[in-house]
Amino acid sequence: MSIHLENIAKHYGRGGRHQALAPLDLDIQQGELIGLLGPSGSGKTTLLRIIAGLEAPDHKPAGRILFGERDVTQLHVRDRRIGFVFQHYALFRHMTVYDNVAFGLTVMPRRQRPSSGEIRARVHRLLEMVQLEKLAGRYPAQLSGGQQQRVSLARSLALRPDVLLLDEPFGALDAKVRQELRRWLRHLHDELNFTSVFVTHDQEEALELSDRVVVMSDGRIEQIDTPEALYRAPANRFVFKFLGDANHLEGEVRDGVLTCGDARLDVDLPDGPEDLLLRPHEVALDTAPRESAHLPVTVTAISPVGAEVRVELAADWLPGPWLATVRHADFERLTLSRGQRLFALPRRWHRFEDSAPAAHDSAALLAG
Ligand SMILES: Nc1ncnc2c1ncn2[C@@H]1O[C@H](COP(=O)(O)OP(=O)(O)OP(=O)(O)O)[C@@H](O)[C@H]1O
């Protein structure tokens, strides 16, 4: 089921003074898994609740919500064929796992309700998919948080919704279980081919799970793109900074040289103030400066855990610390240690004028 939002806005408070969502459009394709990502208060939950029909959008502008060809703007939540999963497992505590999953089917009006044989088959199939068949007779209190959330997933899918909406579904769980549940969701999604929208403020979760991510801030959509495109080509400074660590290089450009205290870097930019951004993996380190890059730094912390070594750098010319990630081989070659004085070499940097983002490969490394 595709979802089409057109001119959807939401204001709260007396006289609608507080804007939760600016008028926005959004198109979600059939079968997509979409992450709504943004800081607290950016409007993710409001948007999800409006798609669900738990919240009405503003009347002015008069927006529209279509599920496929069907205009559901005025339709009650129970008629939208939606499944929900929330952060706090809303399982019925006095019912077994089996009964929790079967519940939505057993309370359907008699004429629509599947036969009891079919209900049984459907519930077993779902429990099998989330590998909880053996625990069908248990009560929620006898399950771990991750298992409870798998029951929630199975329960929300029992009614074969066209659209599955999830609000911070794994927020209350520890990192390892979250990881596992993401795989469950992705797997169920691909196998059953419904359309899903989930809310998260966790960028890693959004990037790992989504086909496309909707990045929000302040009630607006900043960018909608695949995880790869978001990371490679962020539309603006907000998206760049929200999606990962960012090092700032602020200074003044004169005749193709950016200067900041005793640091300087050749840049092909017009004269004037600049604030360039660099990802940690775009900062290389060496024992000598280059003709085109003289950025003296001191190592203040080293964390050699994981696939790469994270190195924190400070300098008088820097208002805040920089983070560089280097390969273990380079870490050993440079025999890095705390207090060591080195030179940072930007491999690449990014520049945002709000309309025209640009990434530049640095001449510093090439020039040698
Ligand atoms: N029922 C409400 N009444 C008044 N203001 C509300 C209501 N619900 C949300 N808001 C406001 O609307 C804005 C968007 O809230 P929303 O819950 O959609 O953000 P969010 O991105 O989901 O945040 P979080 O990650 O913290 O849940 C916030 O400023 C919030 O205070």
Radius of gyration based on Cα positions: 25 Å
Name of the CATH architecture of the largest domain: 3-Layer(aba) Sandwich
Q: What can be said about the biggest beta sheet?
A: 6 strands, mixed
Strand order of the largest sheet: 6-7-8-3-9-10
Pfam family, one: TOBE_3
InterPro entries: AAA+_ATPase, ABC_SmlMolc_Importer, ABC_transporter-like_ATP-bd, ABC_transporter-like_CS, Mo/tungstate-bd_C_term_dom, P-loop_NTPase, Sulph_transpt1, TOBE-like
Domain ABC transporter: 3-243
Protein name: Sulfate ABC transporter ATP-binding protein
Q: How would you explain this protein's 3D organization?
A:
- The chain is built from ten helices and 22 strands.
- Helix content is 26%, strand content 35%.
- The protein has two domains: 233 residues, Rossmann fold (3-Layer(aba) Sandwich); 123 residues, OB fold (Dihydrolipoamide Acetyltransferase, E2P) (Beta Barrel).
- With 368 residues, the chain is α+β, with helices and mostly antiparallel strands.
- Strand 9 and strand 10 form a beta hairpin.
- The strands form five sheets. The chain has a six-stranded mixed β-sheet, sandwiched between helices.
- Helix 2 runs parallel beside helix 4, helix 3 crosses helix 4 and helix 4 runs parallel beside helix 5.
- Bound molecules: adenosine-5'-triphosphate.
- The site of adenosine-5'-triphosphate has 12 residues, from strand 2 and helix 1.
- InterPro entries: AAA+_ATPase, ABC_SmlMolc_Importer, ABC_transporter-like_ATP-bd, ABC_transporter-like_CS, Mo/tungstate-bd_C_term_dom, P-loop_NTPase, Sulph_transpt1, TOBE-like.
- It comes from Halomonas eurihalina.
- Pfam families: ABC_tran (PF00005), TOBE_3 (PF12857).
- This is Sulfate ABC transporter ATP-binding protein.
- Keywords: ATP-binding, Cell membrane, Membrane, Nucleotide-binding, Sulfate transport, Translocase, Transport.
